[in-house]
Write a structure and sequence with these properties.
single chain; 293 residues; alpha/beta; Rossmann fold; eight-stranded mixed sheet; globular; AB_hydrolase_fold; Thioesterase; catalytic activity
Length: 293
């Protein structure tokens, strides 16, 4: 395995950045997509290797790529290239292919999206290319906002990071290492399209895209997530949206807030993701064997 290292590649003429941690003979490749107000560093938090999705993944035999979403990182100076969902999906797929190059993909690609990154991850899975994916993990998102989040999201439509955003995303603060709350993974830039995503994702884009996803899906919400509702009714509603997925499972992760990959029990969450990837890879292998007979 290798330590995480940054990469910048050119996809459709746009520089796309990310971080990769490689396994020598990967079981699969996990592509992690961060949410708003951060970068790929979300999945390899500076000063906290014990929380890192990339480091744990490589140690367990996976190659993990965390990309900077289009409009973040190296692509931030190219707003005209990230305006449409189609552009962003093409850039993300292109970046992954160029970062991997001739490297082994193992059993295939698996997508993990967090919060605002779930929009891009779901679009990628709903795309024609998504049929070849092993599966999809969506964390820290949902169909309906909590009441306090609704008011903040309304304000976010006209003002970037309105008052109360920090508390919404990070409380209860006891669930995170204290220094993370000082912004080790924060990004100062936010592309214009993110306001539209924040306002329209739960009630418009999410229910439109979910039925087009055909691969296995796992949905995770933190027990103490203050942004999205994670009660039984809402989880059942989300399950119904993924009507064409070959498999759907959901869970409320205990003692976790909105930022699942930065909490004190992030490694436990990540291990459940890798276990799901293993299940998807095994199911995919069994399906291919049946087709060959």
């Amino acid at each position: 395995m290798t330590a995480p290292r940054p990469r910048v590649v050119i996809a459709d003429g746009v520089p796309m950045s990310g971080v990769i941690a490689e396994a020598d003979e990967p079981k699969a490749v996990i592509v992690a997509i961060h949410g708003g107000g951060t970068t790929a560093a979300y999945f390899d938090c500076p000063g906290h290797p014990e929380l890192s999705l990339l480091r744990l993944g490589a140690a367990l035999g996976y190659t993990v790529i965390a990309i900077d979403r289009p409009g973040h990182g190296s692509s931030a100076p190219y707003p005209e290239a990230v305006q449409t969902p189609e552009q962003r999906v093409d850039l993300a797929y292109g970046a992954v292919e160029r970062i991997l190059g001739e490297r082994s993909r193992g059993a295939g690609l698996f997508l993990l999206g967090h919060s605002g990154g779930c929009e891009l991850a779901t679009r990628m899975a709903a795309d024609d290319r998504g049929a070849a994916l092993l599966g999809l993990e969506l964390g820290g998102t949902g169909r309906r906002y909590h009441d306090v989040a609704k008011e903040i999201m309304k304000a976010a439509a006209v003002k970037e990071r309105p008052p109360g955003t920090r508390e919404l995303l990070w409380e209860p603060m006891r669930l995170y290492p204290p220094d993370i709350l000082r912004g080790a993974t924060n990004s100062s830039t936010s592309p214009p399209y993110e306001r539209d995503v924040a306002v329209n994702w739960p009630h418009r884009y999410f229910p439109e895209l979910a039925p087009a996803v055909r691969v296995p899906v796992r949905f995770t919400i933190g027990e103490h997530d203050r942004v999205y509702r994670g009660d039984d009714h809402n989880l059942a509603e989300i399950a119904q949206m993924f009507s064409q997925a070959s498999r759907f499972t959901s869970n409320r992760f205990p003692e976790a807030g909105h930022n699942l990959s930065l909490g004190l029990n992030a490694a436990d969450y990540h291990r459940t993701v890798f276990a799901f990837v293993d299940e998807c890879a095994a199911a995919g292998g069994a399906s291919r064997s049946a087709e060959d007979r």
